[in-house]
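User: Could you go from structure to sequence for me? I need the amino acid at each position, not a summary. Structure tokens:
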């Protein structure tokens, strides 16, 4: 809590933090910007300086998870030298670690509506970020390939990365293992499988991933 001598700076991070606290403390989302601002004692002008609506704030939280993840990865001096495969692994490991630190809010947000597609609407901005990140990785790989037929289509790869994320997100939501160890395994197997498919490596890796998914699906049921 800020003291009277050190007035709290109201920025986007502060508003996001207060919003996530509000949602969990009130077991629900604010009905209006007015009610939220009154509860957390900030002016509506402060809010609208950063967000156009409650809905845009919801989406911004996921975007912040992404940018915070990327910033954390780039602080590692060795990250720039990683292969595309290792960069993707690092991204998913770091991103889901970020989600785990905020698990209570994330689970609440993903279950806001009874209709799954309505809940996914808040991920639109994140989708663009993840697809852009994946496109950069595949474009870097394509730059060192001399023949056009050996290059991989970035649009297909990026869409695959997004679908992969949705699978991992759903897996993480239902993961009850200690420290979410099964999610880590799912990340490793899914990323390696996708890169193996693009690198035309043996099919047994794909089958290994399929067996893992089947095993987990059976356990859930």
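Assistant: Here is the amino acid at each position, in order:
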């Amino acid at each position: 809590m800020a003291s009277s001598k050190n007035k709290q700076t109201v920025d986007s991070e502060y508003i996001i933090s207060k919003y996530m606290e509000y949602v969990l403390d009130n077991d629900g989302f604010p009905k209006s910007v007015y009610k939220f601002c009154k509860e957390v004692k900030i002016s509506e002008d402060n809010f609208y300086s950063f967000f156009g609506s409650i809905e845009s704030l919801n989406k911004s939280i996921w975007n912040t998870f992404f940018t915070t993840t990327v910033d954390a990865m780039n602080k590692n001096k060795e990250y720039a030298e990683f292969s595309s495969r290792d960069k993707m692994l690092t991204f998913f490991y770091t991103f889901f670690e970020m989600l785990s630190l905020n698990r209570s809010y994330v689970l609440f947000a993903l279950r806001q509506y009874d209709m799954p597609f309505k809940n996914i609407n808040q991920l639109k901005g994140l989708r663009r970020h993840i697809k852009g990140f994946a496109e950069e990785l595949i474009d870097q790989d394509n730059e060192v390939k001399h023949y056009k037929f050996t290059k991989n289509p970035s649009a297909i790869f990026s869409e695959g990365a997004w679908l992969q994320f949705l699978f991992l997100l759903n897996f993480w939501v239902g993961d009850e293992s200690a420290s979410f160890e099964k999610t880590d395994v799912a990340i490793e197997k899914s990323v390696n499988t996708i890169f193996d498919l693009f690198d035309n490596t043996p099919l047994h890796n794909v089958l290994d991933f399929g067996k893992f998914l089947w095993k987990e699906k059976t356990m859930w049921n």
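One structural detail worth keeping in mind: Residues 58-220 form one domain.
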